[in-house]
Write a structure and sequence with these properties.
The protein is mainly β. It contains 1 helix and 7 strands. The strands form 2 sheets. Strands 1-4-7-6-5 form a 5-stranded antiparallel sheet, with helices on one face. Strands 2-3 form a two-stranded antiparallel sheet. The longest helix has 13 residues. It starts with 14 loop residues before the first strand and ends with a strand.
């Protein structure tokens, strides 16, 4: 499983909330995804992230995310000494000319 680059640290105002829909995501071929509700265990987390970086770094992050659309990858949340499996959604980029801003949500998924 691919790992999100540890050098790509999100901006300090990262939002973290419990997932209202604790689900297990099963990925099939052709982009088909099946969601299975989970009732037991602690709630999964949703991380709202922003990366304010030079355009070349934003492009590298965007390329990684584009390659992992609908796919799981490993990510280490800041200040946590553990890796979690996530999928991404709601990606957007604001181009400012100097430093661009990429916003994205990472949703923790059950194994």
């Amino acid at each position: 499983m691919d790992i999100f680059n540890r050098d790509w640290i999100p901006d300090r105002d990262m939002g973290v909330e419990d997932s209202s829909d604790a689900v297990k995501v099963i990925q099939f071929g052709g982009g088909v995804v099946q969601l299975i509700p989970l009732r037991a265990g602690s709630p999964l987390k949703v991380y709202s992230l922003a990366f304010t970086r030079k355009p070349a770094t934003i492009k590298a992050i965007e390329d990684f995310l584009n390659q992992h659309t609908g796919k799981r990858f490993l990510w280490e949340p800041p200040l946590e000494n553990r890796q979690i499996i996530v999928i991404h959604s709601d990606k957007s980029i604001k181009k400012t000319g100097f430093e661009d801003v990429l916003s994205v949500k990472f949703t923790e998924v059950a194994i």
